[in-house]
Design brief:
single chain, 435 residues, mainly alpha, two-stranded antiparallel ribbon, two-stranded antiparallel sheet, globular
C-alpha cells in the first residue's frame, strides 16, 4: 500500500485512498450514461448495440488505466459525445458509408493521432497556448457542462422563438434535478466532504421512492458479446481510398485533437496541475487518449477522448492517477452490473454537472479582462463552447481571434509561432466542418 501511495504521490498531492476512490467513482457515475447513449447512437449506423456497449466499456477502462498509471492524472476517457453522432448520422446515414468502413476511418485517424503524439506536436501546441486562454478554456468547459446539466435536468429547454428557454416544472423528472441541486448546493456551502456524490445518491433515492426512476428487477447480467465489431476496422482499412473518406478521417482527427486538448488543459487547470503555464507529463496524458482511440476502434466504437465529467471527480477530491484507475475498474464492473446503472439517469447527474460548472467558472477571475486583446478571444472561447455545443468549436473562435487582436495591439511578437499556425488550422477546421 505504501509503495502505491508513493507511486501515485499521495503525500505531495495531499490526498488519500478515500478521496481517490470517491473521486474515481464520482467521475464514473457522472459519465456512466455513455454506456447506454453510445449503443443507441451507433445503433443508428446499424451497429450491434450489445457489442458497442461492451466495446465502449473496455475501451474506456483501457484509456483510464493508461491515463491513471502512466500519466498519473485523475482524468477519465470514454467514447466522445458529438463525434459519435458525426460517425453515425453524418458519415454512415448521411454519406451512406458502411459502419465497417467508418470504423476503419477511426482506426486510420487514431494512427495519425498516435504519431503526432509520439513526435510531441500535440504537447508543443498545448504548451504554446497562453495562460489566459487556458483559463478561458477551463471556464468555458465549466459553462459547457453546466449547460449540459441544465438541459439534461430539464431546467433549460429548446425554444423555436428564443432558441432556449426555462424548462417545464410540470415535468416530474425535472424535480429529481431540482432536489439534487438544492441538496448538493447546501452540502457544498456547508463544506461537507463528498457533497456532489451524496447529492447524486439522494437524487437517485428520491427518484426511486417517487417512482420516477424504475427500481431494477435484477442487478447482474452477463456482458454482451464483442464478436460483431471486434477487429472489423482492420479488415476495411483498404476501403479508405477516396477524397471523401479522407476528409472523414481528417474530421475524426481534428475534432478529437482539439476536443481532448481543450478538455485536458481545462481539467488540469481545475486540479491545479498547470505550473508556469506548463502541464507536467502532458505527453503521457495525450498518449492515453491516442492509444484509447486506437484500441476503441479495434474493439468497435467511435473515437475515445478525455471527458469533462472528470471534473466531478476532481471536485470531490480526486487528485492522483488512482482516481482514473478507479474509474477504469468501475467500467469493467459495469459490464456485469448494467441493470444497476440504469438508475443513474441524466436527471441524477445533472446537479453534479451544474455545480462543477460553478467551480470551473472561478477561473474567469484569472483572465486579464482589462486588456481587450486578451479579453475578446478569451470571451469567445468561454461563450463559444456552450453556444456551439462543442469544445473544439469554442476554441476555434477564440484561437482565430487571438493573433488578430494581439497584432492590432502591437503585441504580435509575444504570440508563439504555433499560435499563428493554429490560426490557419482552425480556419481550415471550421471550413471542413461547415462546407
Amino acid at each position: 500500500m505504501k509503495q502505491l501511495q508513493a507511486y501515485f504521490e499521495f503525500t505531495t498531492l495531499k490526498t488519500s485512498w478515500r478521496q481517490e476512490i470517491l473521486g474515481g467513482f464520482t467521475t464514473f457515475i457522472s459519465m456512466a450514461y455513455i454506456l447506454f447513449v453510445n449503443p443507441s447512437v451507433l445503433g443508428a449506423a446499424k451497429m450491434n448495440p450489445g457489442a458497442v456497449f461492451t466495446a465502449s466499456a473496455l475501451a474506456s477502462a483501457f484509456a483510464c488505466f493508461v491515463m491513471g498509471i502512466v500519466a498519473k492524472y485523475p482524468i477519465a476517457s470514454a467514447p466522445a459525445l458529438g463525434i459519435n453522432a458525426f460517425f453515425a448520422y453524418s458519415v454512415c446515414v448521411g454519406m451512406g458509408v458502411s459502419w465497417q468502413t467508418a470504423l476503419a476511418g477511426v482506426f486510420v485517424a487514431s494512427i495519425i493521432f498516435l504519431l503526432i503524439t509520439i513526435f510531441k506536436l500535440r504537447e508543443a501546441i498545448i504548451n504554446a497556448i497562453p495562460a489566459d486562454l487556458k483559463f478561458a478554456i477551463s471556464a468555458g468547459i465549466g459553462m459547457f457542462i453546466a449547460f449540459i446539466g441544465l438541459h439534461q435536468g430539464g431546467l433549460v429547454a429548446a425554444s423555436k422563438s428564443t432558441v432556449v428557454t426555462l424548462g417545464s416544472f410540470s415535468t416530474p423528472s425535472t424535480w429529481i434535478t431540482i432536489i439534487g441541486l438544492i441538496v448538493t448546493a447546501a452540502l457544498m456551502v456547508l463544506r461537507v466532504p463528498g457533497a456532489i456524490f451524496i447529492g447524486m445518491v439522494i437524487a437517485t433515492i428520491f427518484g426511486m421512492v417517487t417512482g420516477l426512476i424504475a427500481v431494477p428487477t435484477h442487478w447482474v447480467s452477463a456482458a454482451p458479446s464483442l464478436a460483431p465489431t471486434f477487429g472489423v476496422a482492420l479488415h476495411h482499412v483498404t476501403e479508405i481510398n477516396t477524397l471523401q473518406l479522407w476528409v472523414v478521417v481528417l474530421t475524426f482527427l481534428l475534432v478529437t485533437f482539439f476536443d481532448t486538448a481543450g478538455t485536458l488543459v481545462g481539467l488540469a487547470q481545475q486540479a491545479g496541475y498547470i505550473k508556469n503555464n506548463q502541464m507536467p507529463r502532458v505527453g503521457k496524458a495525450l498518449l492515453a487518449d491516442s492509444t484509447g482511440m486506437m484500441v476503441g476502434s479495434l474493439l468497435g466504437t467511435s473515437p475515445v477522448g478525455a471527458y469533462v465529467e472528470s471534473s466531478a471527480g476532481i471536485a470531490v477530491g480526486g487528485r492522483s492517477g488512482f482516481a482514473a484507475v478507479t474509474t477504469g475498474i468501475c467500467f469493467l464492473l459495469a459490464l456485469f452490473f448494467s441493470p444497476l446503472l440504469a438508475v443513474v439517469t441524466s436527471q441524477v447527474t445533472a446537479p453534479a454537472l451544474i455545480i462543477v460548472g460553478v467551480l470551473m467558472a472561478q477561473n474567469l477571475r484569472k483572465i486579464a479582462w482589462e486588456k481587450l486583446e486578451i479579453a475578446i478571444p478569451a470571451f469567445l472561447v468561454v461563450v463559444g463552447m456552450p453556444l456551439t455545443y462543442s469544445i473544439a468549436d469554442g476554441m476555434s473562435l477564440g484561437f482565430i481571434m487571438y493573433p488578430i487582436t494581439m497584432l492590432f495591439a502591437k503585441r504580435g511578437k509575444e504570440v508563439h509561432p504555433l499560435m499563428y499556425g493554429l490560426f490557419f488550422v482552425f480556419i481550415g477546421f471550421i471550413w471542413i466542418l461547415n462546407y
